[in-house]
Structures are given as structure tokens and as C-alpha cells.
Amino acid sequence: MVETAFDWLEHTGLSEWIRGGSFAFPLILTAHVLGAGFIAGTGAAVAFRLLGVARGVPVSLFEKFYPVLWFALGLNIASGLLLLDAYPYKAFTNPLFYAKLSFIALGVYLAVRIRDDVLRAPVWQNSGQTAGLKSAKLFAVISLACWASTLVAGRLLAHTYKWLLVGVPGGF
Amino acid sequence: MFTEPLNPQPWEQWIRASELHHFISAHGQWLWPALQSIHYLGFSLLLGTVGLFDLRVLGMARQIAPAKLHRLIPFGIAGFAINLLTGIVFFFGFPEQYFYNPSFQLLITFVLVAGLNVALFYTSPAFTEVKQLEPGEEASWRAKLLAGTSLSCWVAVLVCGRLITFFRPPYFH
After folding, report:
1. Is B120 within the bounds of a domain?
2. A contacts of B75 (beta carbons < 8 Å)
3. Which pLDDT does position A131 carry in this prediction?
4. Contact A59, A46 (CB under 8 A)
5. Domain for residue B3, yes or no?
């Protein structure tokens, strides 16, 4: 039943075009990797500040870099959906894919929490003080772990899939 | 799958005879995915530190004094060091896959340009100027040119790195 739906999806024009050996697949994949690098990198920079690095930078000002994060996230949702359209069965039959989605969800949630509860907290405004909130450091550590896990899980998807397409097993 | 090139050069034979090459060949199953993951983490560290610093010089988050943001740079250098080391391991694993690969050749070119750009930035008056910028102050066009070159080069390095698999020499298919 579910296979029928994936099989249909794999035979849509867009899906076949992306897989078709043109520039499409490498281009989408590269955009996805670049976006993830910027998301994780920006998230890491914010986390490092909360953990005490670059204390001279007022914590609140890190919100100025959030557009990088949101722009890259938008790029990756778009490129991710296209990759998913190209190989839906490959992703949905791999448990690691769901783990990766969970890391992203938690990472985005923490990025919002950090912005609203830490960067925008009155205590940080125009002050160069060290991170004082315990929860801020906890958010930072979990956020770092989330983004690192997202990148690792994403990279390992290419090594762990059981099926390439419906009826076409992966090489593992 | 993989067959060795027909007439390997002396340097290829030397690498293939090395301890490191044998170790990678024996443990490739887990070593390769693990090192690829670390290589990716190292790169995002570079993007999140050097990349954000470049963006500040270019005019983003201008309320931050660049000298203060510069404290993040050591993490970027650590990321680069991690990637240099893991990169050497990749090269020792399959030297021909990289050496004869246009995408890899371009990657190394961009790393070299980025390196020259770093040297130029720290030895030119641009660094002194950027270091003294107050919150809200705009950098000179010279500093912006260097920062723009840096950011473009590192993005190009990542793009070339991701595309390596699509430009493998024929005997890797």
C-alpha cells in the first residue's frame, strides 16, 4: 500500500528529472549541504557565546545573525523536499532519517527559545557580562549537540539506507 | 566497483604502500563514514566563525565590534585543522580519486586562494583598521573585498568538496 504511493511519487516528472543524471541532483545536494553548514555553524557560534567565548560581544547582538540561520533553513527545507521527492522510499525506510528530523525539530525549537528567552532577555541588553543563566548554557550545549547530530545523521544517510527506490535495495 | 589505475605513478605506489593506506583499506567500512562526518563538522565550524566574521566586515550585525567577534576565529582554525587532517586521510585512502579529480583540484585551488587571502588580510593595514572598528562602524572597501573573498572561497571549497563524488576518474565507477 505505502509502497504504491512511493512508487507513484518516484515516477512523477519532477522526481525522475532530479534523478535523471543532469545537474539537478548534484546542485540540490550541494545547496542542502551548504545550507546545513550555515545553520549548524551559526547555531554553534551562538552556543559558543552563551558558553563564554567572545564575551566582549553583547549576547543580544547575536540575534543579528539569525537571518543567516532562517535563510539557510528555508533553503534546506526547499532542497530537502526536492531530495525527498527524488528518493522518497530511500529516506522513509531509513530510521536514521526520522532521527535526523527530530534533531532538526529540537534544534529549531532551541534556536527560538534561545532568541526569545536569552538573547532578548533584558539582562543581556548592551552588557558584555558572562553567561549567568544556567538554562542558557544548557540550551547552548543541547543546541550544539542537535546541530552536530543533524550533520552526522545527514552524512550517514548515504551509508545506511536499505532501499534506493521501491524494489531497488541499497548496497548495505 | 573500484579497480586500481593501470599505470600508477611512483607517488601513488608510495601512498598505496604506506601504513596509513593499509589501515584505511582495512577499516574503511566505519572509518570512511566517521571521517566524512567529522570533516563536515569541521567545515561548519569554519563557516560559523570565519563566515560570521566576514559577514560582520561586509556590514551584517554592524553593532558588533569585529575585534570582539574575532575571538570566535580560533574555532574556525580548529575546524580547518580537523579538515586538513581528515582530508589527508581521505587522500591516502584513494589518492587517484582526488588527484585526478577536477572538483578536488579546484577545491585545493580555492583553499590556496583563501590562504593567500588570510595572509593578505593579517599583514595589510586592513586588519589594523578592522580591529579598531567601533560598534556600528562600517569597514573600508578594502576590508570588505578581503572578507568577501574569504567567504566566497570557503563556500566554493564546500561546493567543490560535495561535488568530488560526481567528478571521479573513470576507474572509480
Report:
1. yes
2. 44, 48, 53
3. 47
4. no
5. no
In sequence order, what DSSP letters do the residues of A129-146 get, joined into one string?
A: PPP--HHHHHHHHHHHHH
Domain of B61 in residue numbering reads as 10-172
Highest mean pLDDT among A50-54, B8-12, B114-118: B114-118
B64 secondary structure, DSSP code: S
- Give A53's contacts in chain B (Cβ within 8 Å): 71-72, 75
CB A116 within 8 A of CB A66: no
Joined grid coordinates for residue A87: 528518493
DSSP letter, residue B139: P
ipTM for this prediction: 0.92
E strand or H helix that includes residue B22: helix B19-46
Cα–chain-centroid distance for residue B12?
23
Neighbours of B62 (CB within 10 A): 18
pLDDT-derived band at B1 (thresholds 50, 70, 90) equals very low
Confirm whether B1 is domain-assigned. Answer: no
**Domain tally, chain B:** 1
Please indicate, yes or no, if residue B4 is contained in any of the structural domains. Answer: no
The answer for B 87-126 residues in CB contact with A (under 8 A) is none
